[in-house]
Amino acid sequence: MPRPTKQSPERGSARIRLLEAARDVVRTKGFAATAVDELCKSADVTKGAFFHQFGSKDALGVAAAEFWAETTSAFFAAAPYHAPSDPLERILAYVAFRKAIIAGDLAEFTCLVGTMAQEVFASSPAIRDACGRSILGHAATLVADIEAARRERGITGDWTAESLARHTQTIIQGGFVLAKAGNDPELARESLDHLERYIRHLFHVTEEVET
Amino acid sequence: MPRPTKQSPERGSARIRLLEAARDVVRTKGFAATAVDELCKSADVTKGAFFHQFGSKDALGVAAAEFWAETTSAFFAAAPYHAPSDPLERILAYVAFRKAIIAGDLAEFTCLVGTMAQEVFASSPAIRDACGRSILGHAATLVADIEAARRERGITGDWTAESLARHTQTIIQGGFVLAKAGNDPELARESLDHLERYIRHLFHVTEEVET
DNA sequence: TGCAACATACCATACGGTCGGTATTTATCA
DNA sequence: TGATAAATACCGACCGTATGGTATGTTGCA
């Protein structure tokens, strides 16, 4: 419920500015190492505003995970990989898109909720669950295309569309871990190449897919 | 250089006890959220001993990552997956072994250095690099078998043994992230099933491998 | 007039780290 | 061999700061 005023047009945006600051700072330093004061400074907001908007640092964590889920789902919904008419092509375009957006600084393309989940899975169930909903919710957006591709091409096998969708997220998240540990984004990209190869294998397509 | 005495036989083990405590506590709470005092209490050691052994909390982090690298490499060197005479079978046995040891509490089977790397990749290059060496060093232990299997079976393709070895670690690390986020170890196991299927595909083996 | 949205000063505690001191082992040398 | 010096391993009280959180006041709109 932000409310801008005439004298200070920035007023009311404190919540969103804090969520954006959390997204940027926490992705870089982790949740525990990020101080509330630091977020306030980064968002140019006072501590009073912080604790007015979020009752606690934990609540900010939950809100940040939900904010992440909202913004990323909007981002991926608008992404160009949905364009192909063939569902398998859409899936492969998704993988290519995920690979393409791995660029620049590590903290810019890695995943907020994946990082937070690793840190707080035991100490803060609320944050953990919000992270889980974000990751698994995103995985769920891939299921329909996988199932459609499977039906269309008469693919059988002892795997489910849901599990393959989650597997893509496993590889993306794991790629981020390797990229951070090795300080090299290429480590994340190369695993997406393996994922693409795996998917082509599953659907018996070794070359380019034609509609 | 620990040195036990007659009066206190526990003496000298402070360093190792601290490293073991770090392994257990940091895996559960993360590095930043783990206080030095807490490690001392958990290891039944005084703060003086801590800062005598490790000049700083950061140095403890580096030592913990190196300790992890040493203990895990000994663990995997002694593991039964090396038994098969066929290299491809050894690789598949490795994947099966990684799947088998995913049991019990999340903090018991997840990876210390993967967790730490995510947290400190930007704030502590020393810890990050130690984590990177542990993960990539472990990946390197798989390369020889992958190359042997490839040679033996005349497999070609636009992928390298090194990259496939790293890909296995991507899937393991990513599986841990999903397992934590979803609070369900099965999420890690199911991705290892996909990895097994992928490897079989790569080597044109769809059923059991016979020597 | 009431209430949401701040702002500011303040607080108790927890944190990483320091420091002077002691006990025990090891190296040195007459 | 025995006295002694040097070094290692450890103890525990203390320190300055940073931290999450609170209490109280102010502003501006409905």
Describe it:
Two copies of one chain form a homodimer. Chain A is mainly alpha-helical and 211 residues long. The first copy, chain A, has a domain at 57-202: Tetracycline Repressor, domain 2 (Orthogonal Bundle), CATH 1.10.357. Helix content of chain A is 69%, strand content 0%. Chain A has eleven helices and no strands. Chain A starts with 13 loop residues before the first helix and ends in a 9-residue tail after the last helix. Chains A and B meet through helix 7, helix 8, helix 10 and helix 11 of A and helix 7, helix 8, helix 10 and helix 11 of B. Chain A binds a DNA duplex (30 and 30 nucleotides) through helix 3.
Element layout with pairings:
2 copies of one chain form a homodimer.
Chain A lengths: L13 H16 L6 H8 L3 H7 L3 H21 L9 H14 L5 H4 L2 H9 L4 H16 L2 H11 L7 H22 L3 H17 L9
Helix pairs in contact in A: 1-2, 1-4, 4-8, 5-9, 5-11, 7-8, 8-10, 9-10, 10-11
Chain A binds a DNA duplex (30 and 30 nucleotides) through α3.
Identify the notable features of this structure and list them briefly.
69% helix; Tetracycline Repressor, domain 2; DNA-binding; 211 residues; homodimer; mainly alpha
Put the structure in a nutshell:
The first copy, chain A, is mostly helical and 211 residues long. Chain A is built from eleven helices and no strands.
